[in-house]
Structures are given as structure tokens and as C-alpha cells.
Amino acid sequence: MATTELDRESEAAGVAAFREHLGLSTLIDVHTHFMPKNVMDKVWAYFDSAGPLTGREWPIRYRSEEDTRVAHLREFGVGRFTSMLYPHKPEMAAWLNQWAADFAARTPDCLHTATFYPEASAPQYVASALDAGARVFKSHIQVGDYDPNDPLLDAVWGLLEDSGTPIVIHCGSGPAPGRYTGPDRIATLLARHPRLALIVAHMGMPEYAEFLDLADRYPLVQLDTTMAFTDFTEAQIPFPRHEVPRLRDLGDRILFGSDFPNIPYSYLDALEALTRFDLGDDWVRAVVHDNAVRLFGIE
Known about the structure:
Blueprint: H1 5-22, E1 27-29, H2 37-48, H3 51-54, H4 66-75, E2 78-82, H5 93-106, E3 110-111, E4 113-115, H6 122-131, E5 136-140, H7 141-144, H8 154-163, E6 167-170, H9 183-192, E7 198-200, H10 208-217, E8 222-224, H11 231-234, H12 244-249, E9 254-255, H13 267-272, H14 281-296
Parallel strand pairs: 1-2, 2-3, 4-5, 5-6, 6-7, 7-8, 8-9
């Protein structure tokens, strides 16, 4: 269900109160989606039909025009966000990267985002994106339906490892498994490229513990909270309570992500979910702001 003007004002006030409680003027969201309109429309159509895959409806909460969505984030006090976008076939990533570069140029609060796909041209357009100022990449193993260890990506991972550029990677098997999802292939990738700054999306759900193990093993691996800990996710893919102490232990390597606009609940719900396990204000403040400031060198 789309938000109304009254909803927007009320929710913005709630998010402001959340920030003010933490002593923050802004938030940083490392997992938001902005794409060309025709691509976003297809993504929304996928979620509209997601019921057979997930067993429940998935209404897009913030289905609106691009300018309205950017305004929403600014109203929430999100000082930096991303334009997570991803290809599902060859000869698509370079075009998406061109769009993303233009979006970042006209949206200065967006962290310039890029993507890739296993194809012979990938090293060239990834290098071009880095030269153009890309600060974060997106890899979607489930939608792209590719093995992260595909030899066509060897040079890409090398470029990203050497540059230290973070990669938000959807590699867990939720909400529905793919042919190449799960921790084993990521463990193989990290054994070959141990300096990759991977940000495991969605806390790696449902393989939470296994991806936390990889973060323990590789100091540059981080995780984002996208959809994790919310009532929506806890109903079917709950975070294991015996792993909660590890969230505190890795508190400097967990980043807030929302999946805006493709969420079936409010942005405030995504933020308040971070308080579910009573890990304290310092932990929440680091997750929604400080960790990303350090990672991306944000002033």
C-alpha cells in the first residue's frame, strides 16, 4: 500500500525522533534501490508476484516516482544512500552503470553505485566505473543466477579487491534460494580473494550463522541489516537468538540497509527492528551511521 501525505509526515516525525534519541542529524542507508524506470517496474512486478515464492504477499510500501522516493529519504534524514541495481543477463551491466553514474551526478547524496555480470567485457566496464568514481558495487547472486567464482569474474574481483571498494552482495538463500546462493561459494571466493570488502546483504539470511562465521574469519567482511530483525522477516526467517551476542561482537562491521523502496512495511519499522535485541544505543548508532562513515570516508 502506498503512503499518503499524512503517513509521510507522521513517519518522518517518527524517524526524526529515532535519530534525535541517538544524537544523530543523519542516517546512512547502504541498501536502497534506484534503477532505470523500466527496470524498476520489472522489479516491482516480480515482488507483486512473489507470493508463490515466499508464501506471502509483498506490497511495495514506497511505490512512487523517482523524485518522490529521493524526497522520502531526505525527509527521513538519510544523508547518504545507494542506488543498488543489478543485471540478470549479459550486456546489461554496462548500461546500468551509465545510468547509475548519471543518477549519482544529479543526486549528490547518493553513493555512486555500480554493478557487474560474468561476461568478457566485465573487467573493462568495472575499471571504467571505478575511474568514474564508483564507491560501492552490487552483486546479486540470486537474480543474476551466476556463480561468484565464474572465471569471467576473476579480474573483476581482483580490481575490487585491489581498490578496496565495498561490494554489497546478495548471496544468502532468502527469501528464496538460487542455484548459486549460500555461504559455501562465498567461502571459496574469499579464500581466493581474502581482501574483498564484501557487505553480505540481509545478514546472509537464512544462513545467518554461516555468514557471521565468514565475518569472523575475514576482517574486511561486513553485513547489512536489510530486512533482518523486522516483524515481517522474524515471522518466517527469525534470527537465531543464541547468535545475538555475535551481533555485539561484530558491531563495528554491521551496516544499516533498508531495501527502500521495495519493503512491505515502513522505513521506521526497519529502524526500530535494530532495537529488538536490546544491544544498546551505541550499537545502533554505529550501525545506522558511524560504521558507514568510516567505511566510505564520509565527512
